[in-house]
From TrEMBL:
Residues 1-21 form the signal peptide. Gene3D superfamilies: alpha/beta hydrolase. It is an enzyme of class 3 (hydrolase). Keywords: Hydrolase, Lipid degradation, Lipid metabolism, Signal. GO terms for molecular function: 1-alkyl-2-acetylglycerophosphocholine esterase activity. This is 1-alkyl-2-acetylglycerophosphocholine esterase. InterPro entries: AB_hydrolase_fold.
């Protein structure tokens, strides 16, 4: 795809003047496909929402990303829906992002419905993704688009009351609850695990998969699946693997671990990737789970990074030409690695792990470090 990053509003179907500058977040890594995106609301009618306190059943929002072998209908899609965009603009103004930053962001995607007949790739493996506490799933859109472009079906999940904001198609908006105590974090983790397990069961439902991946999955076969999580999502990845044995591997991006998995362990591949100074020596939960990981395992530390380096935020600040213009304190959140490079680093290691678990079975890309990224140190 080669659409320009500055377009007339008329091109977007809006008023023909004035000219609006927009920022298109690029697909990075060794991608082979264009990508179409979808979203849907899923309701677990058999489970009450433990955070709602009004007897409602649990509903979640998900986004789907799927490869398109030959895209003939490209489009620019807003990075976030309107209410979420406004919320994030207000939230990140405290870090120095100019007003309207998120409003200017777009993804360059394929119009999947227009390419439906070209999208049949039922053998593609599936990746589930859960993000950080107090963070929208949409702040990982660009990263997950790049993962899908490497040949994966991807679903990201918003966990209402846990995420800072969840915007549903019917206009319902749920903002985040105050989750800080050990009991509240435990409840959030349990709820996330149940959300992900519910979503995984729905992959056998043709009406659901046709919404998320039109033309890709047929019948009731669930594809080979792995799970990736950032922060609390990394803990949820491990917890879900303990509950769902068919998930073949998991990757924890910078997440402290909680729950029964610390003692029960896992017998399938699991990888830990932490920001600078987050290792087994500094995180007791990583030290506790390491000997309980009985399958393939690896631990990496990424120098020059901070907790939210493993999200779209560094790329966003780079694309908006803001990375060296924000408050100095932003380095404590995003690290110092240039945004495009950080995104490529993350996608390279995530897809190398997924390729090993779901495709080739080879760990060659994960042994001895990757010469392209000297920031990455193999810890164990």
């Amino acid at each position: 795809m080669a659409l320009r990053a500055t377009l007339l509003l008329a091109f977007l179907g809006l008023s023909p003047s004035p000219v609006v500058s927009i920022a298109v977040l690029p697909v990075v890594g060794s991608h082979r496909f264009d990508v179409a995106t979808t979203s849907a609301s899923l309701t677990d009618s058999g489970r009450l929402d433990p955070f709602a306190n009004d007897g409602r059943v649990r509903s979640i929002m998900v986004s789907g990303f799927y490869p398109v072998p030959a895209c003939h209908h490209e489009r620019l899609k807003p990075y976030m829906p309107p209410a979420t965009t406004t919320f994030q603009d207000d939230k990140f103004a405290a870090y120095g992002l100019p007003n309207g930053s998120f409003q200017s962001l777009y993804l360059e995607t394929c119009n999947g419905s227009a390419n439906r007949s070209l999208c049949s790739s039922s053998s593609l493996p599936l990746v589930l993704f859960s993000g950080a506490l107090g963070t929208s799933r949409l702040l990982y859109n660009s990263m997950l688009q790049s993962v899908a472009a490497a040949g994966y079906l991807v679903i990201s999940i918003d966990h209402p009351y846990d995420a800072d904001i969840v915007e549903f198609p019917n206009g319902t908006i749920i903002t985040g609850a105050e989750i800080s105590s050990d009991a509240e974090v435990k409840l959030a983790l349990t709820t996330r695990t149940e959300d992900i397990a519910f979503l995984h069961r729905q992959i056998a439902n043709a009406s659901i998969t046709d919404k998320l991946f039109p033309g890709h999955l047929h019948g009731h076969r669930v594809p080979k699946t792995a799970i990736v999580g950032h922060s609390l999502g990394g803990a949820a990845a491990a917890a879900t693997m303990l509950q769902v044995p068919s998930i073949r591997g998991g990757l924890n991006l910078d997440g402290t671990m909680f729950g029964p998995v610390l003692t029960a362990g896992l017998d399938r591949p699991f990888m830990l990737m932490g920001h600078e100074n987050k290792t087994q020596e500094t995180d007791p939960s990583w030290k506790a789970i390491w000997p309980q990981l009985r399958g393939w395992k690896k631990e990496f530390e990424v120098r020059g990074t901070a907790h939210y380096s493993f999200s779209d935020l560094p790329l966003i600040t780079s694309v908006l030409d803001l990375q060296n213009k924000l408050q100095p304190e932003i380095e404590q959140v995003l690290g110092t690695v240039e945004g495009r490079r950080m995104m490529k680093l993350t996608v390279t290691y995530v897809t190398a792990f997924l390729d090993m678990v779901l495709k080739s079975g080879s760990e060659v890309m994960l042994i001895g470090g990757n010469g392209e990224f000297p920031e990455v140190a193999e810890v164990a």
